[in-house]
Amino acid sequence: MAVRITMGIQKGGCGKSTTTGVLAHLLAQDGNRVLAIDLDSQGNLTEMLSQQPANDFIEHSVLEAMQHQEAIPYVCKVAENLELLPANNFLATFPRWLYTGYTYQGDHLPFSGSPSLVLNTLLDSIDQQYDYIVMDTPPSLSEQTTNALCASNYVVVMYECSNWCYSAIPNFLDSVEVAKEVSPHNLEILGILRTMNDVRRNDAKAFNEIVEEDYPQLVFDTIITRKAPTGRLSLYGFKENLELNQALKQYKTFYEEMISRVQN
Question: Which of 20, 42, 212, 258 has the fewest CB atoms within 10 Å around its CB?
């Protein structure tokens, strides 16, 4: 069975999409069969991994996969050992479909189970085909985020080193606790990853230290700092990227930490 990992926090600009993409890439490079799932209607993970506009996947996305409860027709291969369930802006209609049964195309396709387990039910049908399933979530405590948490074994809490993100952590951890009550998996918090760190700012340093003091058993030792090559992954992706080694260097220490926690 696949190990399922969600990157989440309800605040934007915390590196969820970049981290999910890098993690999917590194896992695949290690020979694992990986499925990356984009659950954010912005489609940033989709564009990073596919190097195509998210709108290229209209009618061929994770939304349709969940509505039809059939994943294979909507999965696309983006690299060796790496496949993607893409997203586009129509994913924003997911809650409307969830509660009315009507798709954005006007078809009536109601889901008969728990609204929080739509994604989990879908993934159960393809779970054996992968070693890891990694999920990117939107910057909100939305139905997509809830479905990702309820379908996961682990969640990595993304933490941008700032006051607003610091204040978002307790609410997100509460959401994880609620998801545990619904999820058929033994959902665990894998850790808190400190990202988007600006080494020039004293307040960023202070919030790094504060979150470590508050959650000493959860924070990863790795701190992801703002670096131009990492930021340009959204532009150049993982193929024929001359900056790739520079972009991935700091993430490799997080990757090693994460794998160690999963295995232990």
Answer: 212
Residues 59-69 pLDDT 10s: 999 999 999 99
Q: By three-state DSSP, how is residue 4 classified?
A: strand
CA dist list (Å): 129 to 34, 36, 72, 147, 190: 9, 13, 11, 20, 23
The pTM score is: 0.95
Pairing of strands 82-85, 76-79: antiparallel
The CA-CA-CA angle for residues 14, 20, 25, to 5°, reads 140
Alpha-carbon distances of 167 from 37, 174, 218, 239, rounded to whole Å: 27, 12, 16, 37
Q: What is the distance between the alpha carbons of residues 21 and 27, in angstroms, rounded to a whole number?
A: 10
Rounded to whole angstroms, the Cα distance separating 206 from 128 reads 44
State both tokens at 162: 């700032």
- Our CA angle for 219, 223, 224, nearest 5°, is 130
At residue 227 the predicted structure's pLDDT band, cuts being 50, 70 and 90, is confident
Measured between alpha carbons, how far is 214 from 183 in angstroms, rounded to an integer? 27
